[in-house]
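Mods, move this if it's the wrong board.
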Amino acid sequence: MSDAEPDSQTVDQFIVYGAYGEIMHQFQLLELTLWGFLARNLKSGITFDQGVAKVERWDATTFGKLWRGLRTQDHWPAGLVAELDQAIEARNFLAHHFLREYFLVVPSEEHREDALTQLARTGGRLDAVMARLDEHARALGLPDDDELDEQTHQAIEALRPTGWFTASSEASDDQSPNPAARPEAEPDAETGGHDARSGASKYNLGQPHSSSAQSAEERVLDRMSEEQIQRFMQNFHDVIVPQLLHTADTVRGTAAGLQSITTALAEFYSTAALIRDAWSHQILNVIAPALLDLPPKLMRATGPPHWKDLTDEELRAVRITATAGMPVTWIPRTSILRELLTADAADQLTVLDTHAAAIVDDCEAAVSQTRSGTFATLATYTEEAILTYQAGHTAAAQALAASLIDTLLRTTFYKPTSKNFQYGKVRAAITEQPSLLPQVIACLPVANALETFHGHMQVPATFNRHASAHAVGTEQYTPANALVSLMLATSLLRQAHHAAHEAPEDDDLA
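Not the wrong board. Structure tokens:
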């Protein structure tokens, strides 16, 4: 093995690939842990072949689809579903975008730092999620690898190619297969040879690019245990090295053919560079500014009247606020809407409390416009819910509003295609909508209201349709939740009426 010092770009790529491989390995472990929860549903008496067939189907299922089948089960502790949602979203970004974004930009120390900072942050959060998931698995009685019998442990260990990893770096040029014939590395004076960084220093992972403050790769390695470093090196040997060898063989086998097209490729790339430069100018100076300006213009042109006077920045905040669970379509009036768009979750409750009477008046005015037409009956019940709220019976108003929301979803916005109406599918359909059109934004708060809730779970403090139906109590039935439920029922009703009677014929509800 050559002792030549690798150039800094090679080291950068090795470090980023290494940290990336370690985190993707952790995501694979996360997926396998979820298999354990799937295994809870296997029927007693299942044969070995039937079990293998099940596992093969799990293996052929995408990570996201696998999780969607698990997330609605009723055993998850409070908050863990949301953490796993975010973990899988991060995994998809890493799998499909991260390396492309990192290696398509001009190589620089800044980009390396950004890439490693993202990986370090993701790794820390993933460790925390894995710890919670393992704790929950133990609470449910799922077996751990520590419970495997000795014979199974030995069979697993026999699969590990440990010999290559236990050799010292000083003996790397020694071709002898006997590890005992190679000299041992001297132990570190302070750690007794157990420095968690030792595996990194063998492969030039810990060398800073300057004498300035600690670099991002050093900060990543400081977080890595000796076991993690060894696991990374095993992944590198098992996956990356064979791929590199295969690539080298392919290149050698096709070298002659490549030489014959070198001139043509050079001409092609020269032309492509001119096209790229022209398109880069067009994208940066014409297309990108137009795209950035399009969403506010589209929302202002197609949205309800109280959006017309919002600034571009406020219009960009409309979808964010709706996604967080606050109705923003058709109601409330623009002045109150502005306060909601700029407030955090806690301050939004203050805004609702301060302007409760005005917001209810806005709901009443919006519902009055739906008294004739397709939704006249639902308008009558919505007005009854408003009158009930105004009379001080906020709990009764919330219960009726929750039923109205459910009815509008089933009959208008998300009609079931089968006999069963599945809230999980409705919630998924809402969250996957990228549109900025008002008919989509009107439904975004529904996703929050349909968060999974079962009787053994902690009752949510924000408005929740399931808790309103099945967990009557002071935790769910609050004046703030009653007002949000009225706003959401009003917003959906007014949007449904608009789509049915006022919008162009091709305006779709969903």
